[in-house]
Amino acid sequence: MSWLNWFWDEHQLLLQQCFSIPFGFLFYFLATFGFLSLRCRYLYMCIGGFILAVITMGIYSILLFTSVFIFVVLVCTVDHRSLHKWVFGVQMLWQTLCHIFLQYEEFYQPQLFNLRLVLAVSSLMLITQRVTSVSMDIQDRRLTLSLNGLSLSESYEVLLPVISYILNFTALLGGPLCIFAHFVSFIEGIDVNPPPNPSCVVSVKLVQVFLLEYLRYSFLLIVNYTYNSNLIYGVISMWAIAMVLRLHYYAHWQISECLNNAAGLGFCGTKAGCTDWSGLSDGGFWVTESSVCISEFARRWNATTANWLRRLVYKRCKYFPLPLTFGFSLWWHGLRVGHCIGFSIWAATVNVDQYIQRNWLPKLSAAWMKAICVSLSWITTQIIITCIVIIVEFRVISTYLTYLISTNCLLECPKTTEVQCFY
Questions:
Q1: Alpha carbons 213 and 203: distance in angstroms, whole number
Q2: Boundaries of every domain in the chain
């Protein structure tokens, strides 16, 4: 029994996503065989998200439902030309208040870790992505949500796809971010042109999740073995503990991708005789970790969120788009001390890397010089990301410094940062 409790505590977030996968398969088979009408498909996604929120977050699920209610009110009352500004401002204000409440709880009651509240705030961050994506679609005239002159039942039919998209159970506890138009196209066309059976690809990706967790355990062994006063061992130990933290992200992204695939989302067609289910992905371990420069790593890390930030901030800023994008990402993450320092380092190094890519690398003509430059760039990227991840996940510099001199802190690190690492 104690072993089961340990397993649940260590992998609670992964298991919650795993428990939702059968309901994803159920939706796929009911929809493809024609047992669900269009309205029922939207309701399945929406009600599934509502139930999942209540079960996993308890009373704190009200934070999510309040956000959805506010968005619906804004859609019904605000002119479409200024809707995005209202949605962006009100949603970020509400999310910031929730972050402040979470940090207040953590500061005054550090011994009582509230997983439900942490999960609610992290899910609220994902809802912020979806509501702002819809509001940008309306502002850019990609989507029309006009409720003028419509009856109550007609307004319900217009708003149901949006509410279903926001509360979609396949994306409630974790990304990736699906574009609203793709979500609607999928729901409306799954019975006419269904994607192939996702059972095989989901099974393969679940095995990959297991391998990622096994790899994380292997890196923990490296940490325990290499930790001593030796400088080289200390550097290896720091890199290994940062890899342990990053592997949490990869595992959660992979299990979220499994859940979306189980419902039929993420299918991109057939390439070279093989089905491609990579339409919804926040980044794979090998692809992301093989990035040879910090700017490339930034684009591949949490890819759908990076695309959302690019659309929301980077492309809309005439001046200083890169610092403002990282600044908003810092705000979106909760403005913690560790985030402030880590994101500042990340923004500065990306800016320097872009300058080098533009001005220095084109001057290298010899192949061996380029090979050496690429190798050194990959090593530098790993060093920078290691420093950023440790600073961000440990939240404050004092803990980071303690890490360098305390064996106990090192050994306890993976357990205390698991939930924080998730979002």
A1: 16
A2: 37-189, 199-422
pLDDT of residue 411: 38
Distance in angstroms (rounded) separating the CA atoms of residues 268 and 275: 8
Q: Are 283 and 302 in contact (CB under 8 A)?
A: yes
Angle separating helix axes 231-263 and 199-226, nearest 10 degrees: 170
> What is the mean pLDDT of the segment spanning 226-239?
75
Q: Catalytic: which of 182, 307, 333, 351? A: 333
Per-residue buried b or exposed e for 211-241, using 16+ beta carbons within 10 Å of the residue's own CB = ebbebbeebbebbeebbeeeeeeeebbbbbb
333 is catalytic: yes
> What burial letters (b/e) apply to 263-285, b meaning 16+ CB within 10 Å?
bbbbbeeeeeeebebebbbbbbb
For residue 183, give both structure tokens.
Answer: 């979500």
- Token readout for 55 is 């079960």
Phi, psi of 353 (to 5 degrees): -65, -40
Do residues 129 and 306 make contact, with C-beta atoms less than 8 angstroms apart?
Answer: no
pLDDT digits over 314-348, tens only? 999 988 999 999 999 999 999 888 899 999 999 99
Selected catalytic residue, list 84, 99, 302, 339: 302
Which amino acid, residue 423?
Y
Q: Residue 341: which of 4, 312, 349 has the closest Cα?
A: 349
- C-alpha distances out from residue 140 to 78, 81, 148, 311, 349, Å: 16, 9, 19, 11, 32
Q: How far apart are CA 172 and CA 165, in angstroms?
A: 10
